[in-house]
């Protein structure tokens, strides 16, 4: 049982690494948010799931299990708020952008 | 094993701070702070396993909620509106 | 009925978080859940009859399985784009029309879009969703509507409407 949770911890840390590399490499704030939110959230969810498998149905395990949907909804809503705020604040899209239908709404 | 993973997550949070220093716009810095908030949850979990102090999971849950509210208010600041609009 | 349902859900969440069975703990849980129910009951569970329909829960389970699978796929997709040296990205913001009516269904749809490969919701105006897409494959509205929300929309209609 313990080896499964070790594997989940390693997978979670690997996804966190991908997310942070994306945060440094990608060209503009929208793409950075894409990589960072998805990878880091799923990585941390995987770490919490590993904690649940390690401790089973005890106080710690149940708390880790509840923290997963909590983290999911809060991080997605925070991503919406940040990307909308960045657009309204006038942060430019990168030069590789091909279409922008949202511009017509914000005249 | 847990030690190595803990050091990896700490190094990643330094990468987030690098983005905070480099970030050309305000929004970049806020994204980095948001991601740092999620990484802290993982650090809390590994610290709880390593030091055997399981109350750190409660700290992690409280951190999720507080970093969510912090990010929302920062995003509200970006749209240049008052807080009740 | 609506208030009782909300009270029971809140009390179960409290018991799961605190996880001990002392009398003082249970009493403070009842008090906190009661207070929250009295203040916020007008905002949640506006149609509780749907809440007790077991068919919806069946579709919800199927939805969660599909969603977790898409989510794992999303992460490998993002990892590939980040790690490959040429960075194959072609970002853009597209407008997607959704036929969902209720607010909660639209919110869940927006959250699901955020967690699936390469897409993140920017804004919802009436029933149009503005989606930032990391690799715009084509300009045809019918194609990208099917590509982005086609997997979730029918299931969400069965769950929430």
Summarize it.
The complex is a heterotrimer of chains A (107), B (85) and C (161). Chain A has 3 helices and no strands. With 107 residues, chain A is mainly alpha-helical.
What does this structure look like?
The complex is a heterotrimer of chains A (107), B (85) and C (161). With 107 residues, chain A is mainly α. In chain A, 76% of the residues lie in helices and 0% in strands. The N and C termini of chain A lie far apart (57 Å). Chain B has three helices and no strands. Chain B has one domain. Chain C has six helices and three strands. In chain C, helix 4 runs antiparallel to helix 6. Chain C has 161 residues and is mainly alpha-helical. In chain C, strand 2 and strand 3 form a beta hairpin. Chain C is elongated and about 60 Å long. Chain C has two domains: 45 residues, no CATH class; 108 residues, no CATH class. Chain C has a three-stranded antiparallel β-sheet, with helices on one face. Classes of the chains: A mainly alpha (107), B mainly alpha (85), C mainly alpha (161). The interface between A and B is large, with 46 and 45 residues.
Secondary-structure element sequence of chain C?
HHHHEHEEH
The helix/strand class of chain B is mainly alpha
Number of helices of chain B: 3
* Strand fraction of chain B: under 5%
Shape of chain B: flat
The overall strand count of chain C is 3
> In percent terms, what proportion of residues of chain C is strand?
5-15%
Task: State Rg of chain B.
Answer: 15 Å
Distance between the termini of chain C: 20 Å
Helix content of chain C: 55-70%
Mean pLDDT of chain B: 86
- Briefly note the structural class of the backbone of chain C: mainly alpha
């Amino acid at each position: 049982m313990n080896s499964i949770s070790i594997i989940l911890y390693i997978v979670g840390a690997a996804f966190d690494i991908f997310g942070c590399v994306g945060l440094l490499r990608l060209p503009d704030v929208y793409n950075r948010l894409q990589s960072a939110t998805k990878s880091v959230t799923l990585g941390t969810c995987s770490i919490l799931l590993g904690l649940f498998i390690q401790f089973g149905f005890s106080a710690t395990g149940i708390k880790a299990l509840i923290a997963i949907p909590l983290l999911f909804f809060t991080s997605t809503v925070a991503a919406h708020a940040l990307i909308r705020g960045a657009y309204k604040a006038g942060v430019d899209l990168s030069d590789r952008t091909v279409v922008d239908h949202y511009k017509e709404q914000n005249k | 094993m847990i030690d190595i993973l803990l050091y990896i997550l700490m190094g990643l949070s330094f990468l987030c701070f690098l983005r905070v220093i480099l970030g050309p716009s305000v929004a970049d810095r806020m994204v980095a702070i948001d991601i740092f908030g999620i990484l802290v949850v993982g650090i809390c979990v590994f610290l709880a396993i390593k030091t055997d102090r399981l109350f750190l999971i409660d700290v992690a849950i409280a951190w999720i909620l507080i970093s969510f509210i912090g990010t929302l208010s920062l995003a509200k600041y970006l749209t240049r509106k008052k807080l009740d609009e | 009925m609506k208030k009782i349902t909300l009270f029971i859900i809140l009390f179960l969440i409290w018991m799961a978080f605190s996880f001990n069975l002392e009398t003082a703990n249970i009493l403070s849980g009842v008090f906190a859940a009661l207070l929250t129910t009295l203040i916020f009951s007008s905002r949640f569970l506006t149609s509780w009859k749907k809440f007790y329909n077991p068919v919806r829960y069946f579709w919800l389970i199927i939805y969660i399985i599909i969603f977790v699978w898409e989510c794992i796929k999303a992460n490998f997709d993002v990892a590939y784009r980040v790690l490959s040296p040429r960075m194959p990205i072609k970002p853009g913001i597209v407008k997607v029309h959704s036929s969902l009516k209720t607010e909660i269904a639209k919110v869940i749809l927006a959250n699901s879009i955020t967690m699936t490969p390469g897409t993140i919701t920017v804004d919802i105006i009436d029933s149009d969703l503005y989606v930032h897409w990391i690799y715009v494959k084509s300009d045809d509205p019918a194609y990208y509507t099917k590509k982005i929300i086609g997997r979730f929309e029918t299931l969400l209609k069965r769950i929430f409407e």
